[in-house]
Amino acid sequence: MRALRHGMFHTLWVVLRSPVRPEQRTELLLGIGILLLFLLQVATGILLALFYQPSPATVAESVQLIMRDVDWGWLVRGLHHWTANALLPLCALQIVWLLASGSYRGRSSSGWYLGLLVLGLSILLAYSGELLVWDDRAFWRITLALQQVESAPFFGGWLAHVLRGGDEVNATTLSRVFTLHSLLLPWVLWLVVVGEGWFLARRLRERAGGVA
User: Fold this and answer.
1) Within-domain flag for 125
2) Contact call for residues 125 and 181 (beta carbons, < 8 A)
3) Domain range for residue 134?
4) pLDDT of 211 higher than 50
5) Dihedral sign of CA atoms 70, 72, 73, 74 in order
6) Is 8 among the domain residues?
7) Cα–Cα distance measured from residue 164 to residue 173, given in angstroms and rounded to the nearest whole number
8) Which residues make Cβ contacts (< 8 Å) with residue 152, sequence separation at least 6?
9) Total number of domains in the chain
10) 2 within some domain
11) Which among 80, 87, 86, 8 is positioned nearest to 46, based on CA atoms?
12) In the prediction, which pLDDT does 22 show?
């Protein structure tokens, strides 16, 4: 009960009970849209992971299995693909809105930086997802990308070696890309989205005249 009276749950409850001003609706709708698309990405991603095999020898066969033999597999993969494509412009639109409304200054700056993180993580998720088909195009894209990472100063060479899983792009690289796409990045994005939602809820509550 204490968690319901204080903290994020209390803030969200106050916002839900408070009227939303017209100038607040766009920011709120963008946040809700990003959250819903992300949850749909998670749900469809879990279903795809049940059949996807992150091995160069079987990845093409597993993708074909999803598209042809799994019931509604083509629909799940299509939803996963198009929600990823919809998430990027929605995150970009949120950044533009925060910039235009001046929310990057003062007490609202936390939401601005978290919004930038959401956009960056969404780009990484979309990019790593495109690599999981592991065709010739994906192979050369990851090869060139890791070369760029390796050329970065300080930790670039070490990071490229870890992501590559050795000195060459191989089956280990695909496995690590799959791990990043399906485990690490979604959890990080979820924490950032929750944090952004918490700051948004507090900001809307304060603007609505609630107690900070």
Assistant:
1) yes
2) yes
3) 23-207
4) no
5) positive
6) no
7) 5
8) 159
9) 1
10) no
11) 80
12) 64
What is the H or E stretch that residue 35 is in? helix 22-49
Q: How many CB atoms lie within 10 A of CB 193?
A: 20
Residue 9, pLDDT score: 60
The pLDDT tens digits for 124-177 are 999 999 999 999 999 999 999 999 999 998 899 999 999 999 888 999 999 999
Side chain identity at residue 148, one-letter code: Q
Among candidates 42, 54, 80, which has minimal Cα distance to 138?
54
- DSSP element (H, E) containing 32: helix 22-49
Three-class DSSP category at 186:
helix
Where does residue 55 fall: left (phi above 0), alpha (psi -120 to 50 degrees), or beta otherwise? beta
3-state secondary structure 57-96: CCHHHHHHHHHHCCCCHHHHHHHHHHHHHHHHHHHHHHHH
- Say how far apart CA 69 and CA 30 lie, in whole Å: 36
User: For position 121, which CATH number holds?
Assistant: 1.20.810.10
Q: For the chain, what percent of residues have pLDDT higher than 70?
A: 81
> Is the pTM for the entire model greater than 0.70?
yes
